[in-house]
């Protein structure tokens, strides 16, 4: 007999710590300031605190195994023993860190964005010969830890279908191999894990299958059905909750409903259409539906009336309705109550993870208060933002001359060599700089003194780049805490938090600003820093701005306006900044859009419309620049090849993208050869502490030259240098400049 699913739960919880305790411990461990024992103690403390807090808030069912020292996809790879030989270390944590970060012995695995969020996961490598094996230590240890506290938890595992769909073929895999081909072998391991958890007395296990909210082929849906029929048939197993997130299950819903799993989790915020689908799915009548009516992506308080009406509408479709979140709360900060710097009227409208839990608990109480069988109230259909998207196109910006005309004007103006070298913008953010910013915020340092430190940093960064011999310099972004927050702090319509940290990857966190009103730029933001940097050198200094899509993507955004409108407002502010930079004599201006692909709808149906307005916003931001001004853009990911047409439509003169870590995947794309603009495929991976030598970098440049004419190739790192040390940066850039010289001499 299955224990009924308790009345309320959340699909997952933040894990970095309310004061980023995990970040600090990880970084101390990596610096070898603390040992593994201390690191583990920090993890254990955070888990305990989370469970106790959730229980205290009245949440009925607590998740476990949502903690991770780095990433839960990576943990899953370790759980099934899909660990490349080069990364194996005696301790599981060190194995994870070697896979995620690389070290002197091994290059890391690729990292990429998790669905349409700003969270990044480590991409497992699966080949035809990967030997799967169940390594249950982590989920079991968490169950035991909770049990010692008197708590029963629901282990959360990444589901086997999503795990394989997110994986990439291992290095030796034959062309055309797809990791999903290994599903049957993997299921054997999941059976072992489920049995091990059953042996621990665990009543429920959650299997996350967010990959099912994207378009899936009939074969993939069939594989999903097969997977859950098979896991469902396992004897002596825990009850299974298969949870979606980030959108609607659509066609996958009846597939799951046709399997023996006991519960299905629906995202009824972004996947609101699943409500009607659920009512049409007879197979759900015998199951529990874990109803994600409290948004795990949005910081706004839940409309309780609407959520309750969704829950009541769902009741006739299912044997039991449980109140939950639309996805893990991983994407939210911990607690809005700590934000005493926020306008109280704004704060009253906000809910972070703690508040969302309280909302879930409250809704479960309300739902229980409505007797079963009472007629459902009028439905308040959740207004989906997608549906509300404004059909009116963003006005086109006045066109700049065609690229070849501009390129000639820029070349005449800038006189750059072929294989021009540059960086992506930021230089290392030293502890001293961060301390100065903290001192400024605390009133211990005057604005004048702070700005003098920033200028000193700019002088050093310019001096260093001149010494290294780079062609297009940057000022290094020392005045910016973060590429989005900095702009949010200088634009009207945004609020910023003090403690609102959200994990981005590993130990890296961001504090997404809250965009709550109309966006306006009261005065120039970056001009004086760029102008100062330019005053120190005769080489061109790139102005450095964040693009409108990225500013929106990495903020929590108002929902009373269509997203396209919100982004257009930001674009207008950026456009003003571009104009002011240009007027100040800036010949090269980079407008970063690393989040362009991130906001792309997961299903094909919405993608063309999205790209049209997103590209429109970028052109609105940059299209006012004159022909002589060289516009650069930077995108952080290697799958740029997939949206190369859209990138082309951005109409930037130079595009820099990640490439090193994915072993030049981008360059293999046929579309690259047709991309007749400047392209800088990153020649070394800045996410790893490893420093490349000139030969390695030269190899990367030569790979680019096989795909592109020399006049179009730029030589640059994969991304900004902010997270590295000056030692690493100096040697890596020296190798890069040297490599460019060597290759230039040879062509
Ligand atoms: N200009 C930014 C930097 O160098 C770009 C960062 C990014 O792409 N995420 O830091
Ligand atoms: Zn980047």
Explain the overall architecture:
With 747 residues, the chain is of the alpha/beta class. The protein is 40% helix and 12% strand. Helix 22 links the parallel strand 19 and strand 20. Helix 7 runs parallel beside helix 8 (218-233). The longest helix has 22 residues, at 447-468. Mean pLDDT is 94; it is low at 382-394. Residues 424-426, 477, 483, 544, 592, 594, 634, 636, 719-720, 722 line the site of glutamine (GLN). Pfam families: Meth_synt_1, Meth_synt_2. Catalyzes the transfer of a methyl group from 5-methyltetrahydrofolate to homocysteine resulting in methionine formation.
Going by helix content, strand content and strand pairing, the class is alpha/beta
What's the Cα radius of gyration? 26 Å
Q: How many β-strand runs?
A: 21
Spatially, the strands of the biggest sheet line up as 1-5-7-8-9-10-11
**Bound molecule types:** glutamine, zinc ion
Shape: globular
Number of helices: 26
Poorly predicted regions: 382-394
Q: Distance N terminus to C terminus?
A: 73 Å
pLDDT averaged over residues: 94
Share of helix, binned = 25-40%
Instruction: Classify the beta-strand content into a percent band.
Output: 5-15%
Q: Looking at the chains present, what oligomeric state does this protein adopt?
A: single chain
Main sheet makeup: 7 strands, parallel
């Amino acid at each position: 007999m299955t224990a009924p699913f308790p009345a309320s739960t959340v699909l997952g919880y933040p894990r970095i710590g309310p004061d980023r305790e995990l970040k600090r411990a990880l970084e101390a461990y990596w610096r070898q300031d603390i040992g593994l024992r201390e690191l583990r103690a920090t993890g254990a403390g955070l888990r305990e605190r989370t469970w106790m807090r959730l229980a205290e808030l009245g949440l009925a069912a607590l998740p476990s195994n949502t903690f991770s020292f780095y990433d839960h996809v990576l943990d899953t790879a370790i759980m099934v023993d899909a660990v490349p030989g080069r990364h194996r270390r005696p301790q599981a944590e060190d194995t994870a860190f070697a896979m995620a970060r690389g070290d002197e012995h091994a290059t890391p695995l690729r990292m990429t964005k998790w669905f349409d969020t700003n969270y990044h996961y480590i991409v497992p490598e699966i080949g035809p010969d990967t030997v799967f094996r169940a390594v249950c230590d982590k989920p079991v240890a968490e169950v035991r830890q909770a049990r010692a506290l008197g708590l029963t938890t629901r282990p959360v595992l990444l589901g086997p279908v999503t795990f394989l769909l997110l994986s990439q073929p291992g290095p030796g895999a034959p062309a055309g191999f797809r990791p999903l081909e290994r599903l049957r072998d993997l299921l054997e391991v999941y059976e072992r894990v489920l049995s091990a958890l059953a042996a621990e007395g665990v009543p429920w296990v959650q299997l996350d299958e967010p990959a099912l909210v994207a378009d899936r082929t009939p074969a993939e849906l069939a594989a999903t059905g097969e997977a859950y029929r098979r896991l469902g048939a396992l004897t002596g197993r825990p009850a299974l909750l298969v949870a979606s997130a980030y959108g609607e299950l659509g066609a996958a819903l009846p597939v799951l409903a046709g399997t023996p799993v006991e519960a299905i989790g629906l995202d009824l915020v972004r996947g609101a259409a699943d409500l009607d689908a659920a009512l049409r799915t007879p197979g759900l009548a015998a199951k529990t539906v874990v109803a994600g009516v409290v948004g795990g992506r949005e910081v706004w308080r839940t409309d309780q009336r609407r959520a309750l009406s969704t829950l009541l509408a769902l009741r006739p479709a299912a044997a039991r309705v449980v109140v939950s979140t639309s996805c893990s709360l991983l994407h939210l900060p911990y607690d809005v109550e700590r934000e005493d710097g926020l306008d109280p009227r704004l704060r009253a409208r906000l809910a972070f993870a703690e508040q969302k839990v309280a909302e879930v608990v409250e809704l479960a109480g309300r739902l229980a208060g409505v007797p079963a069988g009472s007629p459902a109230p009028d439905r308040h259909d959740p207004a989906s933002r997608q549906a509300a998207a404004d059909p009116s196109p963003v006005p086109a910006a006045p066109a700049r001359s065609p690229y070849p005309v501009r390129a000639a004007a820029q070349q005449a103006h800038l006189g750059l060599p072929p294989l021009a070298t540059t960086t992506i913008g930021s230089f290392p953010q030293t502890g001293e700089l961060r301390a100065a910013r903290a001192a400024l915020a605390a009133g211990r340092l005057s604005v004048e003194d702070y700005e003098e430190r920033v200028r000193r940093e700019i002088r050093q960064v310019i001096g260093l780049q001149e010494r290294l011999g780079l062609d297009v310099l940057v000022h290094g972004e020392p005045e910016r805490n973060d590429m989005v927050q900095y702009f949010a702090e200088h634009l009207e319509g945004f609020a910023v938090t003090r403690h609102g940290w959200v994990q981005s990857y590993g130990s890296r966190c961001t504090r997404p600003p809250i965009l709550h009103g109309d966006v306006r730029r009261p005065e120039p933001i970056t001009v004086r820093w760029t102008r100062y940097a330019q005053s120190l050198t005769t080489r061109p200094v790139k102005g450095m701005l964040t693009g409108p899509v990225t500013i929106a993507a990495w903020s929590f955004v108002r929902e009373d306006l269509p997203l396209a409108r919100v982004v257009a407002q930001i674009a207008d502010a950026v456009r003003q900044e571009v104009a002011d930079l240009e007027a100040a004599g800036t010949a090269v201006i980079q407008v970063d859009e690393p989040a362009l692909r991130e906001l792309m709808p997961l299903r094909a149906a919405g993608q063309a419309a999205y790209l049209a307005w997103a590209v429109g916003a970028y052109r609105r931001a940059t299209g006012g620049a004159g022909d002589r001004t060289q516009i650069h853009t930077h995108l952080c990911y290697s799958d740029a090849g997939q949206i190369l047409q859209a990138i082309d439509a951005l109409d930037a003169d130079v595009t820099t993208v990640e490439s090193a870590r994915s072993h030049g995947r981008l360059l293999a794309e046929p579309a690259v050869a047709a991309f007749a603009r400047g392209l800088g495929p990153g020649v070394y991976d800045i996410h790893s502490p490893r420093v490349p030598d000139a030969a390695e970098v030269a190899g990367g440049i030569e790979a680019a030259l096989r795909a592109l004419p020399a006049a179009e190739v730029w030589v640059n790192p994969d991304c900004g240098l902010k997270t590295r040390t000056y030692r690493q940066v100096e040697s890596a850039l020296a190798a890069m400049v040297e490599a460019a010289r060597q290759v230039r001499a040879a062509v």
